From TrEMBL:
Record-linked Pfam families: Sigma70_r2, Sigma70_r4_2, SnoaL_2
Protein species of origin: Geodermatophilus obscurus (strain ATCC 25078 / DSM 43160 / JCM 3152 / CCUG 61914 / KCC A-0152 / KCTC 9177 / NBRC 13315 / NRRL B-3577 / G-20)
Residue span, RNA polymerase sigma factor 70 region 4 type domain: 105-156
Protein name: RNA polymerase, sigma-24 subunit, ECF subfamily
Oligomeric form and interacting partners: Interacts transiently with the RNA polymerase catalytic core formed by RpoA, RpoB, RpoC and RpoZ (2 alpha, 1 beta, 1 beta' and 1 omega subunit) to form the RNA polymerase holoenzyme that can initiate transcription.
Origin organism lineage: Bacteria, Bacillati, Actinomycetota, Actinomycetes, Geodermatophilales
Length: 307
C-alpha cells in the first residue's frame, strides 16, 4: 500500500481528532493537510501509521489551538464552534463517545480545558487510545497524561447535564419546535422552551448579532415569533437537519445561500439553549454564504411594512 493510500484510509480519523481539539472545520482540514505533508516528507515508514499520523495531527492541533485561544479571547461576542454536518469517522464500538463529543455543548465544555488537557481527553476518552500512545502524541510522560486525563474528565463531568435526552425524544421535540416556529406560534414555542432557555448568537463582528444572550422562555418565544413574518416576506427559508449530532437547522436566503445555522440543546423534555451561528467565516464549508447585513436590512424594511 502506498503512503497516499494509507493516509486516505486514516483521513477521517485524523479530521475527527483535529476537529474535536480545535472546534473548527477549516482549521481541522488544514491540520490534516499539514499532517499529510509531514508524512510525505518523512524519510522513514513508521511501525504504526495510525499511531504516527494521530500523533502528528494532535501536535499540530495543539499548536494551532494555543494561538487560536489568544484570538478567541479577543473575539467579538459569543464564540461558537464551526458547525459540523457529518462526522466522517465511524466506530461502532465508540459511537456514544463520538456522538457526545461533537455536540455544541461538549465542544464548549472542551474550550474550558488547556490545550494539553483537551488533546489528552480527546485521544483517551473519545477515541480510546492507550496512555503510551497518548503520551507519545502530546510529548508528556504516561503519568503526566493520566493526571491530565483525570483533570479533564473532572472538568467535563462537572459541566455535563445530569439527564440526557434520548435521540428519539430530541427529534420529536425539535420537530414540534420547528413547526411552532414556522407558524410563529408564541404559546406553542414557549411550551417547548425551558424556563431559563438561552438564545446565543455568534456573529464574530462580521454579521448582525445579538448584543447579548436572550434569556427566558417568554422573551425567546416572542423574539422567535417576531422574526417569522419578515423572514417569510424576504423568502428566507430553513431546513431542519442534524448539526453536530443535535437537532438543528440551516437558514438560507432567497438565492439559496447559507445565512446562519441553529443547533438545539435539549434536556428534560425542553429546549435549553439555541445556538445561532451567523459569522460568515464559519459557514463557508456549508456552501455559498449570504450577505447577512443585506438580509438584515431587507428584513428590517419588511418588518416595517408588516407593522
Amino acid at each position: 500500500m502506498t503512503r497516499a493510500e494509507e493516509f486516505e484510509e486514516l483521513r477521517s480519523l485524523l479530521f475527527a481528532i483535529a476537529y474535536r481539539i480545535l472546534g473548527s472545520v477549516s482549521e481541522a482540514e488544514d491540520a490534516v493537510q499539514e499532517t499529510w505533508l509531514r508524512y510525505q516528507a518523512s524519510p522513514t515508514r513508521p511501525t504504526s501509521t495510525k499511531a504516527f499520523l494521530s500523533a502528528v495531527v494532535t501536535r499540530i492541533s495543539i499548536d494551532v489551538l494555543r494561538s487560536a485561544r489568544v484570538r478567541r479571547e479577543e473575539y467579538v461576542g459569543h464564540w461558537l464552534p464551526e458547525p459540523l454536518l457529518d462526522d466522517p469517522y465511524e466506530d461502532p464500538a465508540r459511537s456514544a463517545e463520538l456522538a457526545d463529543s461533537v455536540s455544541m455543548a461538549a465542544l464548549l465544555l472542551l474550550e474550558r480545558l488547556s490545550p494539553l488537557e483537551r488533546a489528552v481527553f480527546v485521544l483517551r476518552e473519545v477515541f480510546g487510545f492507550g496512555f503510551p500512545e497518548v503520551a507519545s502524541a502530546v510529548g508528556r510522560s504516561e503519568a503526566a497524561c493520566r493526571q491530565l486525563a483525570v483533570r479533564a474528565r473532572r472538568h467535563m463531568d462537572a459541566g455535563r447535564p445530569r439527564f440526557e435526552a434520548d435521540r428519539r425524544e430530541r427529534e420529536e421535540l425539535a420537530e414540534r419546535f420547528f413547526d411552532a416556529f414556522r407558524d410563529g406560534d408564541v404559546d406553542r414555542l414557549r411550551e417547548l422552551l425551558a424556563a431559563d432557555v438561552q438564545l446565543v448568537g455568534d456573529g464574530g463582528g462580521r454579521a448582525p448579532q445579538l448584543a447579548r444572550a436572550v434569556v427566558g422562555a417568554a422573551k425567546v418565544a416572542r423574539l422567535l415569533a417576531a422574526i417569522v413574518p419578515p423572514m417569510a416576506r424576504i423568502h428566507v427559508t430553513f431546513e431542519p437537519r442534524e448539526i453536530n449530532g443535535q437537532p438543528g437547522a440551516i437558514f438560507r436566503d432567497r438565492d439559496d445561500k447559507v445565512l446562519h445555522t441553529w443547533t438545539l440543546d435539549i434536556l428534560d423534555g425542553r429546549i435549553q439553549t439555541i445556538h445561532s451561528l451567523i459569522n460568515p467565516d464559519k459557514l463557508g464549508h456549508l456552501g455559498p454564504v449570504a450577505d447577512a447585513w443585506a438580509v438584515a436590512r431587507e428584513a428590517a424594511q419588511a418588518r416595517r411594512l408588516t407593522d
